[in-house]
Amino acid sequence: MTAFSPEIEVAIARTRDEVAALHAELTRYELVVWTGGNVSGRVPGAELFVIKPSGVLYDDLSPENQILCDLDGNVIPSTPGSDRSPSSDTAAHAYVYRNMPHVGGVVHTHSTYATAWAARGESIPCVITAMADEFGGDIPIGPFAIIGDESIGAGIVQTLSGHRSRAVLMQNHGVFTIGKNARDAVKAAVMTEDVARTVHIARQLGELLPIPQESIDSLYNRYQNVYGQNPAGELK
Ligand SMILES: O=C(CO)[C@@H](O)[C@H](O)COP(=O)(O)O
């Protein structure tokens, strides 16, 4: 059995609880079907993250069957869940954690409207205030990348580095989001689908009206730093 300090064991247990519970948000907001999609969370204070097992039904996910990995994506042996294969996107999540130290959570979905934009290789333009609030501008397109190795992670990091958006539409694939923690990344995935649907419908009705850059900046700053009870600030 791999031994960690008591403090890290507590952090791992909390991350297992959080990541398992957050998968239920993907089904609640209808962002996934069957076993598609995944959530991971970095273990605070350790070079570790927790991710779901591959191809397991959402109803069967629990804290005990989430899988503990190091930042190279290797499963930590003899830990709960380590008898199963981790998510097929584990190498991609690991690449993001290694290369974006400020990121504490990563989420992937094939949510319908956002993935339809990805299938066209088209970024979602910032034409509603909710997009300016959450993403600070357009939601960008990332490159086409093969599933199963670091390619997706490299595409996420390349596209989102220096970008305000917490979401990228990986071309021909779907949504990947990042956040300060796993919950923040899940929220970004929920918001991505919401704005993808609204902007798609708006475009069916006529011409989209851009928001001036200074208004986008102002909306973004207010939402990230003033909105709500305890704003966490932008992701950087
Ligand atoms: O995008 C893909 C495959 O197209 C995968 O990411 C699935 O959406 C989820 O795979 P697991 O996390 O269950 O391996």
Automatic annotation (TrEMBL):
Residues 17-200 form the Class II aldolase/adducin N-terminal domain. GO terms for molecular function: aldehyde-lyase activity; L-ribulose-phosphate 4-epimerase activity; metal ion binding. Gene3D superfamilies: Class II aldolase/adducin N-terminal domain (3.40.225.10). The keyword Zinc applies. The keyword Signal does not apply. Keywords: Metal-binding, Zinc. InterPro entries: Aldolase_class_II_sugar_metab, Aldolase_II/adducin_N, Aldolase_II/adducin_N_sf. SUPFAM superfamilies: AraD/HMP-PK domain-like. It comes from the Bacteria. One of its GO terms (biological process) is pentose catabolic process. It catalyses: L-ribulose 5-phosphate = D-xylulose 5-phosphate. Its cofactor is Zn(2+). GO terms for cellular component: cytosol. It holds the Pfam family Aldolase_II. Its EC number is 5.1.3.4. Belongs to the aldolase class II family. AraD/FucA subfamily. PANTHER family: FUCULOSE PHOSPHATE ALDOLASE (PTHR22789), L-RIBULOSE-5-PHOSPHATE 4-EPIMERASE SGBE (PTHR22789:SF8). This is L-ribulose-5-phosphate 4-epimerase.
